[in-house]
Amino acid sequence: MQALYQIQMTGDSAHIVKGQFCSDQNMDRVDVDYFKELLSGIAREEQGLLSSFEPILDRPLAELDPVEKSILLIGSFEMQHRLDVPYRVVINEGVELAKQFGASESYRYVNSILDALAKNRMAGK
User: Fold this and answer.
1) pTM over 0.85
2) Which listed CATH number (3.30.9.10, 3.60.110.10, 1.10.940.10, 3.40.50.300) goes with 2-122?
3) Residue 80: what pLDDT?
4) Range list of H helices, the chain
């Protein structure tokens, strides 16, 4: 989530940020392969991911908080491309990230959007 946030704030490419995180951050407790897969996949699929949750938003995409946007990108990527991760886990992780890094009530917003994405996925939309 922090790497995606950095990409939004600096405009750096996913490749550059991935290299910075792997060299500058303590990655001992991180599944580095999964981190790289998420970052590369989200960069590659970003427009499609944004399109998957933009209709659910109650505000224009440009007004979405960068932390919330990062979390929703991760959640939508996992729901579309990592079907081995149960949607309840995706939602729970998104909520926990929003509680830790987002505004005071952003976890509720993230929960509602990820829940709607999960329902759409189960309905085949």
Assistant:
1) yes
2) 1.10.940.10
3) 93
4) 2-10, 14-24, 32-53, 66-81, 87-101, 106-122
